[in-house]
Write a structure and sequence with these properties.
The protein is α/β, with parallel strands linked by helices. The chain is built from 6 helices and 6 strands, in the order αββαβαβαβαβα. It has a single domain (about 15-180), classed as 3-Layer(aba) Sandwich (Rossmann fold). The chain has helices at about 5-15, 45-55, 75-95, 115-135, 150-160, 170-180; strands at about 20, 30-35, 60, 95-105, 135-140, 165.
Length: about 180
């Protein structure tokens, strides 16, 4: 006879982890990595985490967005720590999971940094790796994201197997489907 407590423990064991830098967690199963602009963008990662969790509690989610307290204060040692964390989880997700790109529109302009510069580099890198190694990648482009027309055209022509969506929710749904 099953006990209610055993069922709760099994559910808890199957609940996916939310992984945020600088923490490293060893997890089994697929990971969805939330790739996209952080500086100058809304906290779309929080919305994505909430949406994915409402659809599938078992998936692990790696989000590079740190707490609000450290967002604008990025000392050199934190920069290296952040980049190492992102590289680790992008590689881990490439092995078992889905890299979800959400190209959020800019809401706060910063003159000293091109908006989405890291995201654009990572998207190009992921698309090329997808082409040669078939990693799972999905892309969503927010209305108002600069360069959207070029990115859509290039992805559809050069990487037609990478799905492109126009809402965060649809992009999350695509990632959830591919993660299974």
């Amino acid at each position: 006879m099953k006990k209610k407590g055993d069922e709760i423990l099994k559910k808890k064991e199957k609940t996916g982890k939310i992984i945020i830098p600088p923490r490293y967690l060893e997890v089994e199963g697929p990971v969805i990595f939330l790739a996209g602009p952080i500086r100058g963008a809304e906290n779309w990662q929080g919305r994505a985490i909430h949406y994915i969790r409402s659809k599938n509690l078992e998936l692990h989610i790696a989000s590079p967005r740190r707490s609000v307290l450290t967002q604008d204060n990025f000392p050199e040692d934190t920069f290296d720590e952040q980049i190492d964390w992102e590289h680790y989880y992008l590689r881990r997700t490439s092995e078992n999971g889905v890299i979800l790109f959400w190209l959020a529109k800019e809401i706060e302009h910063r003159c000293n940094r091109a908006y989405g510069q890291t995201t654009r580099f990572e998207l190009g890198e992921a698309a090329a790796i997808h082409h040669f190694s078939n990693i799972k990648v999905v892309v969503g482009i927010d209305e108002g994201f600069t360069g959207a027309k070029y990115i859509r055209k290039t992805l559809s022509k050069k990487y037609p197997n990478i799905p492109v969506s126009n809402t965060l929710e649809k992009t999350c749904d695509l990632a959830i489907q591919l993660a299974k």
